């Protein structure tokens, strides 16, 4: 298992649109998402890397993706974003077994929920979703499948309140566990890749036993 060190940014970042440039200026490193866990059924591996940092009061994420086709049918938050070209950040911020799934398609439509397992998810309140700023290089308008090679980027600014079942005052010094994924259940070539490997018979991202360490500096 790999460990992700999430550095603290020296300056405040108020919008997701400013994250890519801020990361470039600060030299924040990118990590590949390259584990093909079910090669016999789903061998396709799009190119994906992500970077994470924080400002104490917010977690900052930036995804860079290149894939052979893209899809963004979800029209609003909490739609089936995992069926689109989707990047996902799962995080367990405490030792109580509760983890958060932050799933976002390539046009910035979000699904956020929390709980101890796949069948025990509690959807994030609307106010939480509205507090998460997003930037998507492909824009925000929905579209059906585009069968051509496409590069896209996505940035998210997640306030501490995103983790709504916990009382997190600051990300500084937090030790968490989690994983990062790329999927596209209803793309012409479905795929399910991860940052850290998953050992299950079939695709299943809701497996905290395969989460890796995430250390907030």
Write a short abstract of this structure.
With 217 residues, the protein is mostly beta strands.
Written description of the protein model:
This protein has 217 residues and is mainly beta. The chain has one domain: Immunoglobulin-like. 6% of the residues lie in helices and 39% in strands. The protein has 2 helices and 16 strands. Strands 1, 3, 7, 8, 9, 10, 14, 15 and 16 form a 9-stranded mixed β-sheet that branches. The protein has a 5-stranded antiparallel β-sheet with strand order 2-4-5-13-11, covered by helices on one side. The longest helix has 8 residues. The model has no long low-confidence stretch (mean pLDDT 98).
Number of domains: 1
The CATH class, by name, is Mainly Beta
Tally of alpha and pi helices = 2
- Inertia-based shape: globular
Supply Rg.
16 Å
Counting DSSP E segments of at least 2 residues, the number of strands comes to 16
In the CATH classification, which architecture applies?
Sandwich
Give, in order, the helices and strands.
Answer: EHEEEEEEEEEHEEEEEE
Under CATH, the topology is which? Immunoglobulin-like
* Proportion in β-strands: 35-45%
Helix content: under 10%
**Helix vs. strand class:** mainly beta
Mean pLDDT across all amino acids: 98
Q: Which sheet architecture does the biggest sheet show? A: 9 strands, mixed
How far the N terminus sits from the C terminus, by CA atoms, comes to 19 Å
Given as residue ranges, the uncertain stretches (5+ residues, pLDDT < 50) are none
């Amino acid at each position: 298992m790999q460990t992700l060190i999430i550095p603290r940014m020296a300056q405040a970042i108020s919008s997701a649109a400013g994250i890519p440039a801020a990361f470039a200026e600060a030299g924040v490193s990118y990590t590949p998402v390259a584990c093909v866990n079910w090669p016999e059924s789903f061998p396709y591996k799009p190119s994906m890397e992500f970077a994470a940092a924080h400002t104490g009061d917010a977690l900052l994420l930036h995804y860079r993706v290149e894939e052979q086709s893209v899809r963004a049918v979800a029209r609003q938050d909490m739609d089936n974003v995992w069926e689109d070209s989707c990047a996902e950040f799962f995080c367990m911020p405490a030792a109580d077994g509760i983890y958060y799934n932050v799933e976002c398609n390539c046009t910035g439509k979000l699904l956020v929920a929390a709980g101890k397992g796949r069948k025990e998810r509690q959807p994030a309140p609307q106010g939480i979703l509205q507090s998460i700023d997003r930037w998507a290089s492909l824009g925000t308008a929905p579209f059906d499948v585009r069968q051509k090679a496409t590069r896209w980027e996505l940035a998210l600014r997640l306030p501490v309140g995103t983790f709504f079942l916990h009382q997190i005052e600051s990300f500084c010094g937090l030790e968490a566990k989690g994983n990062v994924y790329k999927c596209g259940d209803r793309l012409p070539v479905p795929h399910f890749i991860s940052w850290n490997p998953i050992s299950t018979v079939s695709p299943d991202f809701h497996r905290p036993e395969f989460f890796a360490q995430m250390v907030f500096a």
